[in-house]
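Supplementary Methods, section 5.1.

A reviewer requested that the exact input to the structure prediction be made available. We therefore reproduce it here, unchanged from the version used in the analyses.
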Amino acid sequence: MKEKKKEEELQDEVTPETEEQVDETVEAPEEVIEVSEVDSLKIELTEMEDKFLRARAEMANMSNRNKNEREQLQRYRSQDLGKKLLPALDNLERALATEVSDDQGASLKKGVEMVLESLRFALKDEGIEEIPASGEVFDPNLHQAVQTVPAGEDVAPETIVEVLQKGYKLHDRVLRPSMVIVAQ
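The structure derived from this sequence is encoded token-by-token as follows.
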């Protein structure tokens, strides 16, 4: 009975103002939910923008990498052909080094010389050049030492004394190092 009495008293105390306060407190959780929903959407938007920027940067990096690879392929496209032609170039130079005594041999030597010059021109046109070696300071990146000799008064140490086989490079890439004898 006491409980019924208390309920009736409480109902009598409820005024329109207290009803609004009760309604506001009931609505407040919905507003909190709404605000947290907006915040979560903002966070999601920020994450999506970040993903978009990362994807865009990755695409730009891939494009640059592909462009660089294409340039490298274009620049060094004649590398394999050059490596295959170097032994023929060596053989032509050896043929020119032989001594001839008759007119027929001299005319054949002249023809070999013309072929050698046209081959050198074609290789140079593609960017293949001879690596300077004789009298140069030994560079292990460009030269391959196959023998050493004692340095004399007229030859400084680490100097290339003799070239056994010419080396060639394509732009800045070594196709074949020079085989040399170095003074120690």
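The chain has two domains: 2-75, 79-183. These observations are discussed further in the main text.
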